[in-house]
Each structure stands twice: as structure tokens, then as C-alpha cells.
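hey so i finally got around to running the thing on that chain from the lab meeting. sorry it took forever, my laptop kept dying and i had to restart like 3 times. anyway pasting the input first so we r on the same page abt which one it is
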Amino acid sequence: MYLPVLLLGLAGGLSAAPKLRLSTAAVGPVSITQGANAPVQTVEAYNAGDGSLSLQMAASAPWLSAAAGSSRPCTRRPGDCLPLNISFNTSSLAKGMYTALVRVSAPNALDAPQDISVTVQIGGGVPDSINFYVAPNGAPDTLTITANSPLTTDTSTQSGGPWLSVALTGTGSFRFALPYRVTAAYQDGMAEGTYSGSLRIAGSNVAAENRTVPVQLQVTSQPITRISPSQLAFRIASGAPVQQAYITVTNGGMGTLSISTVTAETASGGNWLAAEANGGLVTVKAAVAGMSNGSYAGTVKIATNGVNGSMSVPVTLDVVAQGPPLAVFGGVLNSGNFDNRFAPGSVAALFGEQLTMKEAASASAIPLATSLNGARVLVNDQPAPLYYASYGQVNFQIPYEIDPGEAVVRVERDGQSGNGVGIVILERAPRIIQVGNNGVVVNPDGSLAIAGGRAARPGEAITIYCVGLGRTDPAASTGAAAPGAEPLARITPAPRAVFGTVFSGLVTVDALYAGLTPSLVGLYQVNVIVPPNLPDGDVNLSLAGEDYQSNIVHLPVKR
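ok and heres what got predicted. didnt touch it at all, straight out
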């Protein structure tokens, strides 16, 4: 059922359509007493564009439902909002954590649909016991407990000193989610062995959370297995190719950590889940061929020589019907540092679902084609050149012909048009390509100036690679290789490189060259001399012009 929302937004370029906005994209974790239903939670929707919204909501799990109330003044912003009331039918759920989605759709609106992730903790979020592992003089081990009301907490230890602590670390992404971080830290003089302590919790509105939890710390010189993430969730349309995700396995202790076996198990749906290890990376694959629409569960088990034994990662799979390609709200990002700053000619990544129903593919020729794997990206209805296309991601170039201002990006798949998402294009929005804290900066010998590698040297020329510097002189052609000989596609006036901070002192250097990298598409480079007076160590580096500045990256410098 469609529900009218009589909310008028602000006028502006390309805003003749409604624009869906939600007060939050996450609800929970909501702690619920086992056998009970949680109280209704409310998210507010409003129109940031013109006209009116008509909303439709659907939940991905039977224990979850949502309905809209009557328009009312917003609680956290000026204007009117529509309350989206999320209800729970959780009385039959077993103890544990569950996550599902509420999809909020708005036909003919930009930035729709949007998903609200809803997580519940049946029986509360306080574990029955806690086991920590640390190495002598190693990093602390932590666990976060999320409550829905302020807690009174207390810790005690039987030996080893005050190695156990707990602290409220913020308010979480959901206004009633209070994260309490429990920390076990090595203390000077602790011998290898096992130490006991306890965490006392009171004041929770869920009775099962008010108790004393036994805590055990093992100080060990053996390997300690750490995994990330702790759970995986797939959402795949029928007929889609195999999708994959990754689990990183690292050593939080001493010695050498090795993976002995990786196994995948499913509770239903057949053998749709597979996993394999390559070094410290576990690739997890989900195949939905022949499966009916619905929700499925599985587990990836990782056995190592770590002292904390095998690790289990729960995996959920939602198989959904095929539909139009879907770009997620906020899912268009530049390919330099993956924020939302763009200029004409920027290389961008669009994330979503069902963007193509074929195996992932990369462009095989230059000039780049505007169709790949059956997918097209349109920016203000102008086809964009494509670098890469897969089920969940398409990389494209924003055409140089798109003027600065608001723009609408949408995907077509095999002629089927998807939803539109809005972005803002600036005249220049340089983003140094970033890996971790380091920028992609090349030394004269071709090596990367990164931590653990060859540092940049004062007095030498370095090449800073970036995206988003905008239009060039002479003008570059969208999707085409940059000129390989003079006249090169330069940025005028050229940006300057800025080294250091306002506290340590800023050193600004003119560029030897700033423009497109010859023979490539959409990649810019800025060549500069490293100032001779820079100190050794990690130095902040950015690019700046008259009315713009790039992201800040670290540049290792050593004489």
C-alpha cells in the first residue's frame, strides 16, 4: 500500500523530483527478553526535494514489520516528517542476534529505495561468559556489549592486577544503542597463564542482562586468531552468478599463525556455501542457482593453530526475485579515497544490487565503451564510459561534458532502468589515490613511497597520482586515453603540493606538471620536488588550488 507524504522540499537544480531521506539507516541492536516482543521503534522519513513522496515498506524477515504513521513535526530537524513505525514479532525466536532489513521505497523519487538495517538481541546482549587472549606486552583484547539503557558496571580481578575494565564508548549509530567496551590489558609483570575476573552489570531494562559475568584472560606467547568480520550477509537475486565475500585472519599474538582447515556448513538450501583459504584471506562464496527465494543460514569454520581454537563465522543468505538494477543511497563514491567528492572526468564506483547478472568483467579496450556486461551508467541521462561491471559494483567515468552542480546517476541493465541517486559535481575535487593512510606516490626509480618501502627523499621528484582534477587544457575526451605527447592535457592553473601541518609548519611547492597521465583514462598526476627542509618521518601531503583542497595522505620521508 502506498502512503502519501505531503512534504515539500527545497527547490534547486535537478531537484524537480522528491528526494527520500531517513533519520537513520540502522536500528539496534535492540535487546529483547526471550519470549517477548520489543516495543515499537520509529525512524523518520522526509522529503529533501520537491513535490511529495509516496512510501512503501517491506520487511525481509517474518519477525519484522513496518508501517507509516501520520505526518508530524520532525524531532531532530525543521519541517515535517513521516514516522516509520517498526514492529517486532520476536516472541518465538531463540536466544541470539538477528538482523533483517526494512526496505523503504518511493516511486519516482531520487535516492530511493533505502534500507533500514534492524538488529535484535534476544535474551539481551550480555554474554554468559567472556574469554580474552593477549600476548605478553601485546595489544589489549576487547569486546563490545550494546545496551538500550544506561548500565551500572563494575569489574574485579582475582589476580594479575587491574587488567579488566569497562567503559561507555559513545552512543552508537542508533540513539538507544549504548556501546560498553570491555577491555582486558596485559599488566607489567604478568606471567603466562590464566587469570580470572568478573564483570557486574545492573540497571538494564532487560532483566537477563543484570548479572555477574565470569571473565577469563589467558596471557600466552602462542598465536592468537583474530578474524574480521565476525559475520557475513549475502543478498542475491535468483539467477545471479556466484557472489563472494572475504574474511581476514590475523595473528594477535606471537609465533606464526597458520590455517589448517576451512569448512562451510549450511542449515538449509543445499550446498550453496563454500569457503577456501589463501594465506590469511578466506574467500567465501554463495551460489544461488536452483534455490527458491527465501532466507538461509550457514557457517564458515576456520581451524588454526591459535590458542583460542577454531573460529565460527555465521553467514546469512537472502535469495530475492530479479528486479531492476539498484544503486544504494550514498553508494556513488570516487575511486581515489572513496568519499563523495566528484568533478567532470572523475573515476567513480557505484555500489548496489543486480547491476549486471553476468560474471564480473573489466574493460578490454580504450576508448572505454559505455556498455559492459549488459550494464550502462547514465549521468544526467548521458552514457558514461565503464571500467568494470559486476553484480554489486560498476566503475565509471563521469563525462567531462557534465557541468558542475547536482547530477543524477542511474544504472540500466539489459535495457531495464534502475533508480536514480543524486550526487554533487564540483569544478575540481582532487582526491589522491589512497591505500590505508598512504597515498599512491611514486619515486624516481618507480618504487612506491609507502610505509615499509622506499621513502621519498628530499630534493627528488615524486609523482602523485589522483582523480578528480576536472577539465583540462586542451580538453580531454571522455573515455579516451590522455594524449601521450605534447600538447599534454594539463590542469591550469596547476594545483600546488602542500607538505606538513599547521602545527609542524606547512611547505607549499609548485607542480612541475599537473594533468592527465599520458595514455590512460581519468587518471591524473602531479609531479613535484620533495622540499629539502622536510623532516624525516611520515609527513602529511595534500593538493590545493585557489578554491579546493584534496584529501590528506601520509608520505614517508627519509634522507
